[in-house]
Specification:
Immunoglobulin-like, 4-stranded antiparallel beta sheet, about 130 residues, 1 helix, mainly beta, single chain, 5-stranded antiparallel beta sheet, 9 strands
């Protein structure tokens, strides 16, 4: 009986080892790119979100060497509110770290508010943000 249980344990261990998936998706960074920035844009409130709960966002931060100050707050596992300040121009605003960097289309950015140097509220207008690898 003991040999049978031991043999069954070995067979079960081998079967489980064969079924395990050791290839996880590549974790990495995606960029949030600003287009059509206004010449006087100095601050922007953004929402960065995954399309569903599986599109988790681990961190939101300034890109290395960026001239911007970034303030980010997690709302849920897949949604962050972000304030970016500085002399805003077209190009990368922030970097987001996600568990699967190949799912670029699972993330989006929305401009909620824009302010100029005198703190006047500006309409988002033609400004847009896109998520890129």
């Amino acid at each position: 009986m003991i040999k049978r249980v031991a043999g069954l344990g070995v067979v079960l261990a081998l079967a489980l080892n064969q079924c395990s998936d050791t290839t996880a998706p590549p974790s990495g960074n995606l960029s949030l790119q600003l287009s059509n920035a206004g010449t006087n844009d100095r601050a922007m409130l953004l929402e960065v979100a995954g399309t569903d709960s599986s599109a988790r966002i681990d961190t939101v931060q300034a890109t290395t060497g960026s001239p911007y100050r970034v303030f980010a707050q997690r709302q849920t596992l897949a949604r962050w509110r972000v304030i970016v300040t500085g002399n805003l121009a077209n190009g990368v605003l922030v970097t987001i770290t996600v568990p699967d960097a190949s799912r670029t289309t699972s993330y989006s950015g929305t401009i909620l508010d824009v302010a100029d140097a005198s703190f006047a509220d500006l309409p988002p207008g033609l400004r847009s943000v896109t998520v890129t690898p």
